[in-house]
Design brief:
824 residues, alpha/beta, seven-stranded mixed β-sheet, 26 helices, 28 strands, 36% helix, elongated
């Protein structure tokens, strides 16, 4: 008799998996175990041995990973691509192959299943994780047929997991060796922001390699400080001798500075980065590969009332659960003790409450896929309880006035004591954050703390609610009170950090983030976007519960973080400031952008050339295509600049055109008008638009006008150009008079013969040289010093004129021309 079995892989009975070997033994699982959608089995074996009474125990199984993307694309395991979860159970003890009907309540479906060590079937959402009715039939012996029997623990379940398994054999082949595969799977983890955010998480591998004397020794390669999993290289792993690291775990006490010193002295390469603070924990876990993430789904579950009980409900004995302890030596020591005492044969992970999750294995793939599987279990749990899907969210409102954002940035910078950037996310994610800020209970749920303690270093403990000046003042006052309360309780003296918020929630603006750099602001935004998801999902489980203020203070004012603060050098001169540069796609404008970026400014570059949009790929540069003669385009560009960085502090008026040489008698009015619109009118428009922003610049507004030698010493054939630049100089001088009371200073540079610019085409260069009776080569160095002036020469002086050396200079003009006899 043949039976068709739906949803069961083609496998034969074995000791721990259908293939007769542990699916984790190679880190891959047996391809046969994923099987086909249906197969035929013999329902009547000739001489089945009398089995003991089988018992379904969902909590007792060897976990099998979900199929990776490559397997799904090949069409294997179609059941696991269905919208219903697939659940794996094991019968204990194993029995001979036979037909056992599994009856699912309400009794409308009976699936005849081949009994082996693991059987699989699908269940509907209403059944949840408990299987109410189970019936067995074997050799005429009925065991509890039709009676209601429930599994005592959670099954290994997943349904088209939200967390993708990104393993790809072809990609992995490009990463040879143990360390190579460690790099590969670390990057896979880093790609998924629901697992780790910037700098978060850590991974390791233990290898045996010869030392200088040819002796084999065990070395722990653990992620080094300052490296990001998404982009880590082999050089980003710190090689630490395993033996001394394990001895450290046996100590009763070890301060963080001592731990850092001991780990550094145990390294096999002096130039390697400092090992992760969790290096001892990685050393203590008895597995070749160890992965650690701060998975959103897991943190959501742990940050709820009864979080530990929920973790045990999801994972049973497959993980060891560790109560919250601050990262560092104490956590490593506790994990070593608890893991040795509580881990069993089925343990494949470790959950650190209010912190994250570990997985481990014999291979890089095994450890990685266990991580994906464990996180998927938490995701399915949240989905089953209606705590996964969020939204939909309303579309963002129209942009708020740029002056409001600039004013908020001004107040935040004043609280910090130095200029700060303020980033606004005007996109779909901000629609989501605006909905979060409008929650009736936003003041309660947002004021508990971050999802994991390490986020406090990037986001501070709490976000600011609102955007009024008194809101910022109140936040700074509360932060100083927080420091005053907990600093005296610390084991060592602490230096207060600036009290300015890093995360701002506003019902109209949504999520805004502040930082000394664009990268810092972007990291804070990314972290809090995930924090909002964690909070809202936790609320659906009964409430979000963060760590106490005291615990978070200990992390924010960690000795290791305070040491970094003490060693930090002076920030770049324009750190936290925003520069707007016109004509930035080439020549002097491009050089100005480079010079300002090198001094720490965030730069917005405008140009009519579309290449400006992809000129520089970095978080502190925004290139916008803009015709500066079109007022509406300028208005949108300025608004976009403010939404990106919070304001405008430095304005470089560089855009201009230099027409071909033409005598006044031959100068058409249309050409005159065109030159005036670009070289003069556009600058008036931009000055007018930026004045409210320059007034609010934390360190005072600064404007540098790129003029021309033709202002003090015009030449024949350049009437339109010379007149436009002369008028621009007068405009700048009047602005210096009018805006001085606002703390805005305006100065002008008059370059000459700068030939690496878009203005100087070969045609124009030849034309001007001929007008003076010179060759092109002679014309390039036709100055007193006989030097060629470059765009970078002009840009460096423009940047310096915005800096402290010219803090008391306004309304001035300065030549950059190598010395011109007529100007002198």
């Amino acid at each position: 008799m043949k039976l068709t079995i739906e949803g069961v892989g083609s496998a034969t009975r074995g000791t721990s998996g259908g293939c007769g070997s542990s699916p984790w033994s190679s880190g891959r699982g047996c391809s046969a175990c994923w099987g086909e959608r249906s197969r035929e089995v013999d329902a009547h074996p000739k001489s089945p041995p009398p089995p003991p009474k089988p018992l379904i125990t969902p909590a007792l199984f060897s976990p099998r990973p979900p199929p990776n993307r490559e397997q799904r694309e090949k069409g294997k395991n179609p059941d696991l691509r269905s919208p219903l979860p697939a659940v794996l159970f094991r019968l204990h003890p194993p029995v001979a192959p036979a037909v056992h009907p599994i009856v699912l309540e309400p009794g409308s479906e009976v699936l005849p299943l081949d009994v082996m060590d693991e059987v699989a079937f699908r269940y509907g959402e209403p059944l949840g994780f408990r299987i109410p009715v189970i019936a067995f039939e074997h050799g005429g012996v009925h065991t509890d047929h039709g009676s209601k029997v429930s599994g005592d623990g959670p099954p290994l379940g997943y349904a088209s997991p939200m967390t993708d398994n990104l393993w790809n054999d072809a990609e992995a082949a490009g990463y040879p060796g143990d360390l190579g595969l460690r790099v590969y799977t670390s990057r896979l983890l880093g790609r998924d922001k629901s697992l780790v955010l910037h700098g978060g998480g850590n991974t390791s591998v233990k290898v045996r390699e010869p030392n200088l004397f040819g002796e084999e020794e065990d070395v722990l390669y653990v992620k080094g400080s300052g490296w990001d999993l998404e982009t880590i290289e082999a050089e980003g792993f710190a090689p630490v001798r395993l033996a001394p690291a394990l001895r450290l775990a046996s100590l009763a006490r070890l301060s963080d500075p001592q731990m850092v010193n001991e780990l550094r002295t145990a390294m096999t390469r002096a130039s390697a980065p400092m090992p992760s603070v969790e290096a001892i924990l990685h050393a203590a876990l008895p597995f070749k590969y160890v992965d650690h993430t701060h998975a959103d789904a897991v943190v959501t579950v742990t940050n709820t009332p009864g979080g530990e009980a929920r973790v045990r409900e999801i994972y049973g004995g497959s993980v060891v659960v560790i109560p919250y302890v601050m990262p560092g030596f104490d956590l490593a020591r506790l994990c070593a003790q608890r893991f040795a005492a509580e881990a069993g044969p089925e343990t494949v992970g470790m959950v650190l409450l209010n912190h994250g999750i570990f997985s481990f294995g014999a291979t890089a793939r095994e450890s990685y896929e266990r991580m994906i599987h464990l996180v998927s279990l938490a995701e399915v749990y949240l989905k089953r309880l209606g705590a996964w899907e969020l939204g939909p969210f309303p579309e963002p409102a129209d942009s708020v006035a740029t002056a409001d954002l600039a004013r908020l940035r001004h107040e935040i910078s004043k609280a910090a004591g130095f200029p700060m950037l303020l980033a606004s996310r005007r996109n779909a994610r901000n629609a989501r954050s605006r909905a979060f800020a409008r929650r009736p209970d936003a003041a309660a749920v947002s004021q508990q703390g971050p999802a994991t303690p390490d986020h406090v270093i990037r986001t501070k403990r709490l976000p600011l609610l609102g955007r009024n000046p008194e809101d910022v003042e109140g936040y700074a006052r509360a932060y100083r009170d927080y420091f005053s309360e907990y600093a005296p309780q610390a084991a060592s003296p602490k230096t207060i950090l600036d009290p300015a918020p890093r995360v701002i929630l506003d019902p109209e603006l949504g999520l805004l983030t502040a930082g000394r750099t664009a990268k810092d602001a972007a990291i804070a935004a990314e972290i809090y976007e995930h924090t909002m998801d964690v909070i809202e999902r936790a609320e659906r489980l009964g409430g979000y519960r963060a760590l106490s203020a005291r615990d978070l203070f200990d992390v924010e004012y960690w000795d290791l973080e305070q040491a970094k603060l003490a060693k930090a050098g002076k920030p770049p001169v324009f750190a936290g400031e925003v520069a707007l540069v016109t004509g930035a796609a080439s020549g002097i404008g491009h050089a100005c952008a480079d010079s300002l970026l090198a001094r720490g400014a965030a730069v917005v570059g405008l140009d009519v050339d579309p290449k400006i949009e992809n000129l520089l790929a970095r978080p502190d540069f925004l290139g916008l295509r803009c015709d500066v003669t079109a007022e509406e385009e300028l208005r949108r560009a300025v608004a976009t600049a403010v939404e990106a960085f919070g304001g405008v502090d430095l304005l470089i008026l560089n855009a201009g055109i230099f027409p071909a040489s033409r005598r006044i008698a031959d100068l058409p009015l249309a050409e005159w008008d065109r030159v005036m619109r670009v070289n003069l009118d556009a600058n008036l428009l931009l000055l007018r638009l930026c004045h409210p922003l320059l007034r609010l610049a934390p360190a005072g507004g600064r404007v540098v006008v790129i003029g021309s030698k033709n202002v003090p010493a015009p030449g024949p054939g350049a009437a339109a150009y010379s007149a436009s630049k002369a008028a621009l100089q007068q405009l700048a001088r009047v602005a210096a008079l009018e805006w001085g009371a606002d703390g805005i200073r305006i100065n002008t540079l008059h370059p000459n013969a700068v030939f690496d610019t878009g203005v100087w085409t070969d045609e124009v260069l030849a034309s001007r040289a001929a007008a003076y009776g010179l060759t092109v080569a002679e014309y390039k160095t036709h100055n007193v010093l006989r030097v060629e002036v470059s765009s970078r020469d002009v840009a460096e002086l423009a940047a310096e004129m915005c800096g402290p050396r010219f803090a008391k200079t306004t309304g001035a003009w300065l030549p950059v021309d190598g010395g011109n006899e007529r100007v002198i």
